[in-house]
Amino acid sequence: AAPLKADRELVLEAVHQNGNALRHAAVPLKADREMVLEAVRQNGNALCCAAAPLKADRELVLEAVHQNGNALLHAAVHLKADREMVLEAVRQIGNALRYAAEPLKADRELVLEAVRQHGEALQHAA
Predict the structure, then answer these.
(1) Collapsing DSSP states into helix, strand and coil, what is residue 15?
(2) How far, in Å, CA of 56 to CA of 98, rounded?
(3) Radius of gyration of the chain (CA)
(4) pLDDT by residue (tens digit) across 17-35?
(5) CA max distance for the chain
(6) pLDDT digits (tens, 9 = 90+) for 46-102
(7) Residues with Cβ < 8 Å from 125, sequence gap 6 or more?
(8) Which of 37, 77, 83, 81 is closest to 60 using CA atoms?
(9) The dihedral formed by the CA atoms of 20, 31, 12 and 93, expressed in degrees to the nearest 10
(10) How far is CA 6 from the centre of its chain?
(11) Distance separating alpha carbons of residues 24 and 39, to the nearest angstrom
(12) Taking the C-alpha atoms of 18, 69, 94 and 110 in order, what is their torsion angle to the nearest 10 degrees?
């Protein structure tokens, strides 16, 4: 990677301004929890660029889905089955229900929250 893309201070400033800048960071920085947390707080979808272990970090993923419910797409499988995680995601973006584990798509309260946010989310219910 280019030396500047591995410069922690520079990349931290970039992701603070635009979380999607994480995609251009050197690989080791994509595994840096503080770096990824800053990125997902600015843009939840920056989770797509995080190292796999961070996609399984419940606190970090919760921050991401709080910022953008569709970040649930990039979460580790077990977090897609986490009711609180999915509830937070569908409160932000109803259609995030599509990324939930199948059993949660049959959860009346979750589906109700999803359709309150976006009626079309009903299509993702089990």
Answers:
(1) helix
(2) 19
(3) 15
(4) 999 999 999 999 999 999 9
(5) 51
(6) 999 999 999 999 999 999 999 999 999 999 999 999 999 999 999 999 999 999 999
(7) 97, 105, 106, 111, 114
(8) 37
(9) 40
(10) 23
(11) 12
(12) -170
Secondary element (H or E) of residue 113: helix 108-117
User: Two tokens at 55?
Assistant: 């996609």
Distance CA 17, CA 38 (A): 9
Token pair listed for 107 = 């959860």
- Rounded distance between C-alpha atoms, residue 89 and residue 19, angstroms: 18
Residue indicated by tokens 């989770």: 47
> pTM value?
0.94
Closest C-alpha to 76, from 101, 96, 97: 101
